[in-house]
């Protein structure tokens, strides 16, 4: 009797799941963790803002690499002169630059046109400014649905989430973030994909140095998201920076 009930239940689950499994549109891969043992990817979201070069230098001085998921128009306009300079400086230091969408929206609330635009405006900016095409995208708030994944696939994106949140963007004091990192490290995870924010002054000035030391002391290698996944950092890299023209401006959306 129990077996029969289970069989019926299983059949019901399979039938209900099939429309999803059989969806015609392929979806972008979603990564929630690193795959290369003993690596940590420190990621910094929501810039470009004031602290990119400072964090870049901290990482470089400690033989570490990081990843910056940048917006086009959030805290700052990506085409501003000082922003272009800090993006290029950080990129040339070997840190990975990837997309965090144009305006940091809740992607699940947008239609196809808007989502596509959120992706393509940043792609276009990074192509002009750095000569790269990025295939790494972190959806704002870590939010996505089937439509977001379908469009991301069409745009050749991988979605990158995280498995550790420093809490720095939700009002957590940096001392608490340090304690959280310590507690995580004490669990001896094989890898770590950590969410931080370039836009937080305390992250830049206190947390990053502390965390680099704690992680390296524990024996981890601090690498880009691409390296922690065993992937190439860019879909293409021309090695040439573009020249400013009238298109280097920030539309509202
Ligand atoms: Zn964000």
TrEMBL record:
Residues in the signal sequence: 1-17
Location of the protein in the cell: Cell membrane
Gene3D superfamilies: Glycoside hydrolase/deacetylase
Residue ranges of domain NodB homology in the record: 38-223
UniProt-recorded Gene Ontology molecular function terms: hydrolase activity, acting on carbon-nitrogen (but not peptide) bonds; metal ion binding
UniProt keyword annotation of Hydrolase present: yes
Record's bilayer topology term: Lipid-anchor; GPI-anchor
Cofactor(s) essential for the protein: Co(2+)
Keywords for the protein's UniProt record, in alphabetical order: Carbohydrate metabolism, Cell membrane, Cell wall biogenesis/degradation, Glycoprotein, GPI-anchor, Hydrolase, Lipoprotein, Membrane, Metal-binding, Signal
GO biological process, one term: carbohydrate metabolic process
Main location: membrane
GO cellular component: plasma membrane; side of membrane
Lineage top rank: taxon: Eukaryota
Name of the molecule in the record: Carbohydrate esterase family 4 protein
Organism annotation: Mycena rosella (Pink bonnet)
